[in-house]
Write a structure and sequence with these properties.
The complex is a heterodimer of chains A (269) and B (186). Chain A has 269 residues and is an alpha+beta fold. Chain A has a domain of 151 residues: C8orf32 fold (Roll). Chain A contains 7 helices and 7 strands; from the N terminus they run H-H-H-E-H-E-H-E-E-E-H-E-H-E. In chain A, the strands form 2 sheets. In chain A, strands 6-5-4-3-7 form a 5-stranded antiparallel beta sheet. A two-stranded parallel ribbon of chain A has the order 1-2. In chain A, strand 4 and strand 5 form a beta hairpin. The termini of chain A are far apart. Chain B is of the alpha+beta class and 186 residues long. Chain B has one domain. Helix content of chain B is 22%, strand content 35%. In chain B, strand 8 and strand 9 form a beta hairpin. The termini of chain B are far apart. The relative contact order of chain B is 0.17. Classes of the chains: A alpha+beta (269), B alpha+beta (186). At the A-B interface, helix 1, helix 3, strand 1, helix 4 and strand 4 of A face helix 1, strand 3, strand 4, helix 3 and strand 8 of B.
């Protein structure tokens, strides 16, 4: 009888393990381009990561070792001290139509496009049946946990044009790094793709040492028509492990640490 | 007795399924990196001839070695308190990025984009993806343009040191080394 008992136990355990494998297989995420074990497509160009002069703070006449990111001599924009709580009369999330005269460091790579890279991440990270907010949260979490900070300056003399945003976003998603402008641009592209039109905000954030520092983040328009702030880099680097304090927030919730010209952007109420 | 067997069987299956459930929930954080098989802290150097360089040294020491003929750029960091600074030596094809360390600046990244630089395992500009994998194993993170080899950080507040390769036309076009860094304010 003991042998029968042991046999049944062993069989049950085997069945249990088999069940685990089947279950695990069922939840295995689809292949990702980010951790593939096979070599990827050959890129045709390499990204420029050479730093260049920050247009707002660097007084030097930097000559970058790579020419793809030209410095700007544009003086820093001085945002208002506090955002307006009044609704903007004509908010627009449409970016400037003017093309950037200074191409950024976006690489070009074979059949890889910004759209395909963004679609791959959304497919991998976002819950298929999730709400828009859940999907935005998923890509935000992916960005916070994956992207690294890299000081690469950007010429913002023409603002965040479509072309510039796409270039910065592509640089970021293919190199997994970038400055605030890069990460904000990628967040905008993710949000746009998820049906939440976004605009990159040019403003400042309050560092812990009390200084206001030029900075970029996004405002998105959700499907209910409301606008909300999202700041990926600040969420990762300045919230002591609580990045969601910078996700889908109102003006009121943001103004303690951020400032921007409220006349230029939709009100997040 | 049959009831006893059935009870045992049910318990065993329950435990097995509980184990499966925990596996499902344990989605690994991308910050928790697995070290590539052929990659270790000793690989966080770049060599040129008989000279070898690494991060976490004062930029003053680098300037003493490379000279004052560098291209300098700086900006208030939007990731850390203090300034992001870069010292670019065009002739030597290397850039040094720094972060504040008290009154001094400490090298947090080296980036080479030309010349005869090589890694401790002999990967040079022009090496193939296959040669990189042969030397260091499968990368910790990979995109169509980059291989990242990342060491686990020593604590949850930091990101691990890394060695990375940029590719153009299937060949290494630039190599970088980053130091372990605290995420956020310092």
């Amino acid at each position: 009888m003991k042998r029968v008992f042991a046999l049944i136990l062993a069989a049950a355990l085997l069945l249990g393990c088999a069940g685990c494998e089947s279950f695990g297989g069922a939840i295995t995420p689809p292949p990702s381009p980010w951790n593939s074990t096979t070599p990827t497509e050959t890129p045709s160009e390499t990204p420029s990561t050479a730093p260049s002069e920050d247009p707002s703070t660097a007084p030097s006449t930097d000559v970058s070792t790579e020419p793809s990111e030209a410095p700007s001599d544009e003086p820093s924009e001085e945002p208002s001290a506090a955002p307006s709580t009044e609704p903007s009369t004509a908010p627009s999330v449409a970016p400037s139509a003017a093309p950037s005269t200074e191409p950024s460091s976006a690489p070009v790579s074979g059949d890889s496009t910004l759209e395909t890279e963004v679609a791959a991440i959304i497919a991998k990270e976002c819950p298929a049946n999730g709400t828009q907010a859940e999907k935005i949260t998923a890509v935000f979490d992916w960005m916070v946990s994956t992207l690294k900070y890299k000081y690469v300056t950007v010429d913002l003399s023409n603002g965040y044009t479509d072309e510039l945003v796409d270039e910065l976003a592509y640089y970021t998603i293919t190199t997994l790094r970038g400055a605030c402008e890069h990460q904000a641009s990628l967040m905008k592209v993710f949000a746009d793709t998820l049906g939440a039109p976004a605009v990159v905000v040019k403003g400042d954030f309050l560092a812990e040492d009390g200084t206001w520092t030029e900075h970029g983040w996004v405002i998105v328009q959700l499907e209910d028509g409301s606008y909300r702030h999202i700041d990926v880099l600040f969420g990762r680097n300045h919230t002591h492990g609580k990045p969601h304090t910078m996700l889908l927030k109102t003006d009121e919730e943001f103004k303690a640490t951020h400032r921007w010209n409220a006349d230029d952007y939709p009100a997040c109420e | 007795m049959k009831k006893f067997f059935a009870l045992i069987l049910a318990l065993v299956m329950c435990f097995a399924l509980v184990g499966c459930g925990e596996d499902e929930k344990a989605s690994p954080s991308p910050d928790v990196v697995e070290t590539a098989a052929g990659f270790s802290a000793s690989d966080l150097t770049l060599k040129n001839g008989d000279k070898e360089y690494k991060c976490d040294v004062y930029i003053d020491d680098i300037i003493a070695d490379f000279g004052e003929n560098y291209v300098y750029s700086e900006a208030m960091s939007c990731a850390y308190d203090g300034m992001d600074k870069v010292y670019g030596y065009a002739d030597a094809n290397i850039d040094f990025s720094t972060r504040p360390d008290g009154d001094k600046d400490i090298v947090c990244e080296m980036y080479v984009h030309g010349g005869d630089w090589e890694t401790s395992k002999g990967i040079k500009l022009g090496s193939s993806r296959e040669q990189v994998i042969e030397a260091y194993g499968e990368p910790t993170q990979e995109t169509n343009l980059m291989f990242y080899y990342i060491l686990p950080a020593s604590n949850a507040e930091s990101e691990g040191a890394s060695l990375y390769f940029e590719f153009a036309n299937n060949a290494v076009s630039a190599i970088g080394v980053t130091a372990e860094q605290l995420i956020g304010e310092e």
